[in-house]
Amino acid sequence: MPQQDRKQAVIRRADRPGDLGWVVMAHGEAYARQFGWNTDFEVLVAKIVADYGAAHDPAREAGWIAEVDGRRVGCVFLVAGDRPKMARLRILLVTPEGRGLRLGTRLVEECLAFAREAGYEQVTLWTNDVLTAARRIYQGFGFTLTDEERHRSFGHDLVGQNWTLDLHATAANPAPAAEVAPTAPSADA
After folding, report:
1. Which residues pair with 89 in a beta bridge?
2. Distance, first Cα to last Cα, the chain
3. Side-chain half-sphere of 176: how many Cα atoms within 13 Å?
4. Band (19; pLDDT cuts 50, 70, 90)
5. Would you tell me how many other CB atoms lie within 10 Å of the CB of residue 178?
6. Measured on CA atoms in the order 32, 112, 141, 107, is the torsion positive or negative?
7. Which residues lie below 8 Å from residue 52, measured CB to CB, with a gap of 6+?
């Protein structure tokens, strides 16, 4: 591939001005375009981001941004869960401009590495069954479906799913070989 055609992709911490606002905007726009979800979803993401921005513990919680050629194209967050050794993977997203570069996989990989370093034993997430590409990434890392429930949210009838990963059992689990486009986020509560 000629040098000018190569894209420079990086994963970095979500710690620059504009990062948190971009996460909310990108989710709202991507989900409206791809799934027809209404602004209720954007409100959910805004709450998750606001809670993180207002009171996260940097030793135990972090967010990441994926960039291609200096432009934000993806994100993921890891926050403390309801129990001391449990974390939650939240709001994974790769925009259409970032797809096909394995950024969803790289974001989840970064998130899980941080979870292990922070001493978590388990990572959970909530998503919806229509987010098939994101689910494939989670399954590739060893997440297992623990339960699902029908609900009406974001203007649609959906099936919410809870997934769990035991970090001790999957310490040597390799990342998925390929990422399937389009990558959609884990729309979690």
Report:
1. 78
2. 42
3. 22
4. very high
5. 11
6. positive
7. 20, 61, 63, 77, 79, 90
